[in-house]
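4.2 Preliminary Data

To establish feasibility before requesting continued support, the project team ran the inverse folding procedure on a target of 150 residues. The structure was first converted into the token representation described in Section 3, and no sequence information of any kind was made available to the design step. The complete token record follows.
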């Protein structure tokens, strides 16, 4: 099963809390996601009338998709969550300046398509550079330890 991730979100934002949400999809979209033909790097989540929607999430239709239905790869999709969770997310994103971010799409144990929604704050440029430096230092340490072990 394919797991579609948004690696840009974790680099550009500090994720403080994550939530699981269902997605309202059509049949051809589920098949495409199962094949790994989806992309959420440019996607974002917004609220309207007390509901959450995924905007700019791209699901590329398969060549064997249904012929009676016109496929829209970047249509707006509704997120399915409990009302109390939605209100909590909307409140925190509007008042505290958090952003709602799609982190990954995956299949649950019961065959349902789920999305991990992150509540995060944007990182400053120096924070991103520090993170890159730490990652490179860890790689260098691993190389050194590997050579010493030989």
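Position-by-position output of the design step:
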């Amino acid at each position: 099963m394919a797991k579609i991730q948004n690696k840009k979100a974790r680099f550009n934002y500090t994720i403080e809390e994550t939530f699981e949400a269902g997605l309202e999809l059509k049949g051809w979209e589920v098949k495409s996601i199962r094949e790994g033909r989806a992309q959420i790097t440019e996607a974002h989540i917004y609220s309207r009338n007390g509901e959450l929607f995924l905007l700019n999430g791209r699901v590329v239709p398969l060549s064997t998709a249904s012929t009676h239905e016109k496929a829209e790869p970047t249509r707006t999709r509704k997120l399915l969550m409990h009302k109390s969770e939605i209100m909590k997310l909307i409140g925190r994103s509007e008042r505290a300046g958090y952003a709602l971010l799609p982190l990954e799409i995956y299949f649950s144990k019961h065959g349902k398509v789920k999305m991990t929604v992150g509540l995060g704050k944007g990182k400053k440029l120096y924070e991103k550079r520090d993170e890159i430096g730490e990652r490179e230092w860890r790689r260098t340490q691993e190389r050194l330890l590997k050579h010493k072990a030989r």
